[in-house]
Amino acid sequence: MLSELDESVLKAIMLGNRDVEKISKLSGIPPFITEKIIERLLEREYIDLDLEPTEKAYRETKWLDIKHGPSFHGEDVKKIITLVVDLSIAIGLIIFFIAILYFFGFG
């Protein structure tokens, strides 16, 4: 799990910044702390040696970009499918009860 500082630096990197000074300014964290956070992100495999975010970084931050759409994050797609199925069942039940009421002359 990422701390707020880790996530701030990681998001600055994910925006395409590769220079410690730029990352520091964008995240609002002093450069010497930014360097330590970058080292920690490297150790924990959120970024590679070229300061490129890894798939782990995209998954854990649920960051969407050109390469990683909503289906990349799995849970989001599952939630949408569950919602659609639940709504379909609810609409089907409503139609069923209206048909029964109509059939028995209550409508």
Task: Give an overview in words.
The chain is an all-alpha fold. The protein folds into two domains: 1-66, Orthogonal Bundle (Arc Repressor Mutant, subunit A), CATH 1.10.10; 74-107. 64% of the residues lie in helices and 0% in strands. The protein has five helices and no strands. Helix 1 (4-14) crosses helix 2. The longest helix is centred in the last third of the chain and has 29 residues, at 75-103. The chain is rod-shaped. The termini are far apart. The model has no long low-confidence stretch (mean pLDDT 86).
Lay out the secondary structure.
Elements: H1 4-14, H2 20-27, H3 31-43, H4 55-61, H5 75-103
Helix pairs in contact: 1-2, 1-3
Salient structural properties:
2 domains; Arc Repressor Mutant, subunit A; mainly alpha; 107 residues
CATH architect. name of the largest domain: Orthogonal Bundle
- In the CATH scheme, the class of the largest domain would be Mainly Alpha
Q: Termini separation (Å)?
A: 57 Å
Give the amount of beta strand, in percent.
Answer: under 5%
